[in-house]
Amino acid sequence: MQRPPANTFNLEYLHEITNSLDEISKQKLKGVILTSAIPNIFSAGLDIKEFYKPDLQRLENFWSSVQDVFIKLLDLDFATAAAINGHAPAAGCVLSLSCEYRAMVNGNYKIGLNEAALGIITTPWIQAMMYQVIPMKHTETALTTAKLFDVDEALQIGLIDEIASNKEDAINRCKQYIRKFDKIPLHARALTKQRMRQTPIKILREQRDEDIRMFVDVVMNPSVQDNLKDYVEKLKNKKKK
Ligand SMILES: CCCC/C=C/CC(=O)SCCNC(=O)CCNC(=O)[C@H](O)C(C)(C)COP(=O)(O)OP(=O)(O)OC[C@H]1O[C@@H](n2cnc3c(N)ncnc32)[C@H](O)[C@@H]1OP(=O)(O)O
């Protein structure tokens, strides 16, 4: 990913990602590694500008495009791994959860689902992605407290699989993970993966409209907009301090 300054996902970037995923799906790849070209930030999540004082039509398109990206990512036949070389809050964390394996670079970085701090609710397919990786009990506490884990905590809880010393090491660990499947028949691997992930995939496929409605209703709530205003201000003021 290379969308400075923070690899946030806006509508256009989501379209770009969907197109790239369509393109790579046509190729006979062994695996894909997601990482960031931006030092210290894997992805800062969804672009808040998309849902602070939004245009309603664009907001619906935006969430539908989020759904497109994650249906595709969850369902990729080949192996997927994330070399998390920096902060990965919110959708940045979800992106890594869509992968089968996560190596995170050691550093003063945070990863987790902090949506509740913004007044946003994680929809059921995102919750399912989290509790398929870490235990339900931890998921509930993490989501309701908007917990962002440091790298050691993330390893301890199982949110990441390994700690890497730098980006290159993280990518090498991802490659090693992908090589595990060299001798496994592709269709068996792919079908097993799809069945393991059927909860979020099914919700995404069968409850799309409801999911969009839920997201839009939450975001358009005046108190959520007030919260977002404060959050955006805080982000802007960080530099002034
Ligand atoms: C798949 C669906 C998932 C479910 C829903 C998810 C909702 C979300 O994803 S909402 C977004 C939540 N993200 C966050 O709360 C992260 C906010 N950002 C940060 O905490 C920090 O930026 C960082 C820890 C990631 C990085 O800190 P650092 O000091 O290195 O950089 P900054 O100066 O803070 O940021 C650089 C630049 O980027 C802008 N920015 C950061 N995050 C966002 C964002 N999510 N949306 C829009 N813009 C963002 C930040 O304002 C800075 O901009 P300027 O350079 O113009 O000041």
TrEMBL record:
One of its GO terms (cellular component) is mitochondrial matrix. Its main location: mitochondrion. Signal peptide: none annotated. GO terms for molecular function: delta(3)-delta(2)-enoyl-CoA isomerase activity. Pfam families: ECH_1 (PF00378). InterPro entries: ClpP/crotonase-like_dom_sf, Enoyl-CoA_hydra/iso. Pathway: Lipid metabolism; fatty acid beta-oxidation. It is found in: Mitochondrion matrix. It catalyses: (3Z)-octenoyl-CoA = (2E)-octenoyl-CoA; (3Z)-decenoyl-CoA = (2E)-decenoyl-CoA; (2E)-tetradecenoyl-CoA = (3Z)-tetradecenoyl-CoA; (3Z)-dodecenoyl-CoA = (2E)-dodecenoyl-CoA. Keywords: Acetylation, Fatty acid metabolism, Isomerase, Lipid metabolism, Mitochondrion, Transit peptide. One of its GO terms (biological process) is fatty acid beta-oxidation. Key enzyme of fatty acid beta-oxidation. Able to isomerize both 3-cis (3Z) and 3-trans (3E) double bonds into the 2-trans (2E) form in a range of enoyl-CoA species, with a preference for (3Z)-enoyl-CoAs over (3E)-enoyl-CoAs. The catalytic efficiency of this enzyme is not affected by the fatty acyl chain length. Homotrimer. This is Enoyl-CoA delta isomerase 1, mitochondrial.
